[in-house]
Amino acid sequence: MAFSGLRSCVYISKNKFPRQNVDFTRGFASLSKKQKENLSTGPGLTDFLSESVNDKNASYKRIKGKRLRLPPWLKTEIPIGKNYYKLKESLRELNLSTVCEEAKCPNIGECWGGSDSQTATATIMLLGDQCTRGCRFCSVKTNRKPPAPDPMEPKNTAVAISRWGLGYVVLTSVDRDDLSDGGASHFAETVIKIKEKNPSLLVECLTPDFRGNTEHVGIIAQSGLDVYAHNVETVNRLQLLVRDPRAGYEQSLNVLRHAKTVRPHLVTKSSIMLGIGETEDEVFQTLKDLKEAKVDCVTLGQYMQPTRLHLKVAEYITPERFAHWEKVGKALGFAYTASGPLVRSSYKAGELFLSNLVKTRKRI
What are the strands of the beta sheet with 97-98, ordered from one edge? Predict the structure, then answer.
């Protein structure tokens, strides 16, 4: 195998070095002085294995018939570390699901691994791991009639969180259109149980849209949570391409508006995925619509195709463009804008700024 690799190098570089008869069975010793000089100054193995990250001709926008390369800024490390395995074991013991695993989040190693200066965090997914909807961007399993919710889940979630010693936690869930209230009361009970164990813990709920039922939105908004999050996911034009037909742009905006109506000082938050085929004008309009809905915080991140069966990435947005949208969010007046290739709606949810914003609102 070693000789076949060397032969490939000689043949590939034939434009620079004329092909020569070499006895590969005798190895390097059989080469003439001239042949040795040619090989020593020619390309090495690394020239064929490495990919230049500075290639100005590299395209990160999908072209029909060509493979879209993963850019270097989206390559993440394999999850490892004591905190990662400890948290995973705790979740399995209490029969809890996380969106980190189900949605194949690229930040799972960083968030679960934690560090000496940052507590490991996880986003708990309530109401099971099977969704009644089938959005084209999401890898969570779908089922028209999922198993009934675990009645012990609210208590087990509170127990797990108290073990981790967190200061901020995110709760989310699958869509449960099969339940009379979409799972809103289950959501609210979980918040109540967590607050009973630790009243100072800040709780963010990333909720479904409950088919636009404002009564169900109100149940969660009044449960004692600190941040109400609901994602519009993409621009208005691409809603039907990306999301289940039961979801909708205006429906999601109304969820965020109503949460604010129920509790005017409640911090609200939403998220947009980029790289699906949206235009810059559409992204700007979406940010304006969220601001009009009185959303306080917004996150923008790169859409990543979870499996080959899901919606394809149209374009990998550069870090420079994400930095641009962060500036736009600030200019529009959002209290907090997180924008980056690996940013997710619950990425680094315990960030100091968001925690301080919640505490400031509580004093009003």
Answer: 97-98, 123-126, 168-173, 202-206, 227-229, 267-274, 297-302, 336-339
